[in-house]
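Re: How this chain folds, sequence and tokenised backbone to follow
Notation: Tokens come from a learned vocabulary of local backbone shapes, not from coordinates.
Start of record: The labelled sequence and token lines come straight after this line.
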Amino acid sequence: MTIATLEPTTIDPSKLEAFVGQALGELGATLNAALVVMGDQLGLYRAMAGAGPVTAAELSQRTGAAERYVREWLNAQAAGGYVAYDADGGTYTLPPEQAVCLTDDTSPYFLPGAYQLFTASVRDEPSITEAARTGTGFGWGQHSQGVFDGCERFFRPGYAANLIAAWIPALDGVETKLQAGARVLDLGCGHGASTILMAKAYPKSQFVGVDAHAGSIATARERAIEAGLDGRVRFDVASAKDAAGEDYDLAASFDSLHDMGDPVGAARHVRAALAPDGTWLIVEPFANDRIEDNLNPIGRIYYAASTLLCTPSSLSQEVGLALGAQAGERRLREVVLEGGFTRFRRATETPFNLILEARP
């Protein structure tokens, strides 16, 4: 190993102080991520939502959580601006804007799922660090349950807000097919949130969701039964390259293509599985094609998540192309066209996702 020698340099005190200040803020944010999960799991945010000013003792009584923990948690939340503190009354209030983000799991602004996903990912840092030493992977199924549950809670609100209302209508002729009755393949479906949303919206269509993680498929099957969709929706344990069936009118992959070890091979399989006039809906994290254009708060989150989740997952599989969560439209186009598609376009977008359409 080569040890770099630092050249003598002049330190700018103001820049040093600014960076230390930034780092201190991020240390607090790192710790607060665990506290958000704690508040979500203990029902603290939900008990505060719409309740007006409460004391630590009152919140403890409402939730059953120990008062001493609740008081310390509340002070941390107040210091971070998550709750408001009234020094005269010694009370704490959850503002309505924070309540939307922290308690309403039907809102596209709902955040606890993201905190659950990312704190669970951080717990696997020792394994990811060791994998980085050797260039090996760390499979999706090797993560803890918090990753799988948090992933569903993170992505589902955005899908619920956009998939039926905006993304499918942006595709050429797909909505009409789904309304009349179509065959749909959902690749990398996880707990089946996207599959079930589509199945509820288009009762004349048939749906197959596949995922390589058996535990997620077991949960997806339970979700389908709970939704009354068992029989019209099927979930199989399979990789994107092994999904059964053909003549699908629509294939879809939601935030999953970049996680695949062989996305080109997956594209070839999708191409073969589609009907001649079929469509592949590809939803990917929003990214520009140039690194410098992704150096912003959203890109930072996605690059970090990609380091801990997406890249290790791809490297654990055959080929291990490791597109990463910030591959960008140009690189995704190359993958899809290499897989045999001839048409590719950006159908629409959100601040967090690219919605891409591929046709044979």
